[in-house]
């Protein structure tokens, strides 16, 4: 019998037959059991390892199925002749894979990450209760992929919600459900490929959106911002036939596009047979004055593609976004995406529909608007108290982040000091295509996940390492 040096873990999570199979597989691949060798008999090996014959038989059957051994009449299993060079490459690849270190998630004392939400107020109980009610429904549609545009009930509820909250008049047929921003932008890009070759973006803008357009082969026209948002004059000078904008809370700089510029942007789109992609990513959270109607609400010529999300307002993990297509694009969508199955689970969509229909979602928004407004105020006051004239704050009317600008400072050095002190902050550098020549450092400070105490202490410590501890 071959020398078998196999130690079995009887209380481990891995079945015994898998352990036996993997042992012989590894011995054959490494050459320690050479080709034409005979494996021990089922009975002999079972007695040697003190396990059942069925266990050995299952392990051997797996080896036969994968081609490591073969059986011959009245003989034990024989090891097949396998290309040593290929096995060597296989093992080299496996060793490299095993050598990859697990990604270490750094822990910071204070993390001003944009996009994080208040973990203490995520409505786990509400979500679980409503999903259980949906699962209890006698509705066979919940089992299948569902309507390709998305669950009809959710689209109907969204059409109603958008009219009430954003002033958008649309039908359920114009609403498309998607699995995140990137998926919806990818669909839009594929529709545009047949119509245009250049997409304009704000400078700076959300880098993820810009990357989607680049990945689809579009030429990017960078349009600078003015103090009140996108420069319409600069947009008009370019050749773009579509523009991606964040008018209700410019990302990342935070300004709100005024009504005159909104009307001018719509006029540009109409006169140039162009389209506007409106990313309304956190419009629910406005802290000064009444909510501003969406750009889509002013669109009378069907030129605006509106995109909304549940990520900031509810739970990022459900990965549900939605868009409202202009009627003029519906035929293109129906023609080219008719075979695409809906990527969002029907159960999740129906649960969201129920939350909207029962008013639970709107009550949650009101609650979170109050919570985030208080955190926003704490952040602004802390910056003013501890940083004072050292920084200029931008984007203070809405959203889950602010921008701070620090004149005549090296951005990398400030970032290094913050990180070394256990404070995670985020440079705005990656959002620009052409960085302004103002010799200033720009940082995003998100506050959604932080407590009032951590906001104050984080800003206090950040001020010390930047301005007092030099």
From TrEMBL:
An example of a Pfam family matching this protein is: Aminotran_1_2
Sorted alphabetically, the keyword list is: Aminotransferase, DNA-binding, Pyridoxal phosphate, Transcription, Transcription regulation, Transferase
InterPro entries listed in its UniProt record: Aminotransferase_I/II_large (IPR004839), HTH_trans_reg/aminotransferase (IPR051446), PyrdxlP-dep_Trfase (IPR015424), PyrdxlP-dep_Trfase_major (IPR015421), Tscrpt_reg_HTH_GntR (IPR000524), WH-like_DNA-bd_sf (IPR036388), WH_DNA-bd_sf (IPR036390)
Q: Which GO terms describe its molecular function?
A: DNA binding; DNA-binding transcription factor activity; pyridoxal phosphate binding; transaminase activity
Q: What is this protein called?
A: HTH gntR-type domain-containing protein
Name the SUPFAM superfamilies on file.
PLP-dependent transferases, Winged helix' DNA-binding domain
Domain HTH gntR-type: from-to ranges: 14-82
Please list the cofactors this protein needs: pyridoxal 5'-phosphate
> What family does the database annotate?
In the C-terminal section; belongs to the class-I pyridoxal-phosphate-dependent aminotransferase family.
| Tree of life domain | Bacteria
């Amino acid at each position: 019998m071959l020398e078998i040096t196999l130690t079995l873990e009887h209380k481990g999570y891995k079945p015994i037959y898998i352990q036996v199979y993997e042992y012989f597989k590894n011995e054959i691949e490494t050459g320690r059991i050479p080709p034409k060798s005979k494996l021990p008999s089922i009975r002999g090996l079972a007695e040697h390892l003190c396990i059942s014959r069925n266990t050995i038989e299952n392990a051997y059957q797996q080896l036969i199925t994968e081609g490591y051994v073969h059986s011959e009449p009245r003989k034990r299993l024989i090891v097949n002749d396998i290309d040593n060079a290929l096995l060597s490459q296989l093992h080299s690849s496996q060793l490299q894979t095993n050598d990859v270190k697990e990604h270490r998630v750094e822990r910071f004392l204070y993390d001003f990450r944009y996009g994080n939400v208040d973990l203490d107020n995520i409505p786990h109980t509400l979500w679980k209760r409503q999903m259980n009610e949906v699962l209890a429904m006698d509705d066979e549609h919940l089992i299948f992929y569902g309507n390709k545009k998305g669950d009809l009930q959710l689209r109907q509820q969204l059409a109603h919600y958008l009219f009430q909250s954003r002033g958008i008049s649309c039908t359920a047929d114009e609403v498309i459900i998607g699995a995140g921003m990137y998926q919806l932008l990818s669909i839009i890009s594929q529709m545009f490929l047949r119509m245009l070759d250049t997409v304009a973006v704000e400078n700076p803008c959300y880098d993820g959106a810009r990357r989607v357009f680049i990945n689809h082969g579009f030429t990017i026209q960078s349009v600078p911002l003015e103090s009140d948002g996108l420069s319409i004059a600069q947009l008009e000078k370019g050749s773009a036939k579509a523009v991606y904008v964040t008018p209700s809370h410019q990302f990342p700089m935070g300004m709100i596009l005024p009504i005159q510029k909104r009307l001018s942007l719509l006029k540009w789109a109409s006169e140039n047979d162009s389209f506007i992609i409106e990313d309304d990513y956190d419009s629910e959270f406005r802290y000064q004055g009444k909510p501003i109607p969406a750009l889509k609400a002013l669109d009378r010529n069907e030129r605006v593609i509106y995109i909304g999300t549940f990520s900031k307002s509810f739970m990022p993990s459900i990965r549900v976004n939605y868009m409202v297509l202009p009627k003029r694009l519906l035929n293109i969508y129906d023609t080219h995406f008719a075979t695409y199955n809906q990527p969002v689970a029907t159960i999740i969509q129906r649960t969201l529909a129920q939350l909207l229909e029962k008013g639970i979602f709107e009550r949650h928004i009101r609650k979170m608007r109050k919570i985030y407004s208080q955190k926003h105020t704490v952040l602004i006051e802390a910056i003013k108290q501890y940083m004072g004239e050292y920084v200029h704050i931008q984007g203070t009317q809405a959203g889950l982040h602010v921008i701070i600008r620090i004149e005549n400072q090296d951005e990398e050095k400030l970032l290094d000091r913050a990180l070394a002190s256990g404070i995670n902050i985020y440079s705005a550098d990656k959002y620009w295509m052409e960085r302004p020549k103002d010799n200033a450092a720009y940082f995003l400070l998100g506050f959604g996940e932080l407590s009032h105490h951590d906001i104050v202490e984080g800003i206090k410590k950040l001020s010390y390492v930047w301005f007092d501890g030099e």
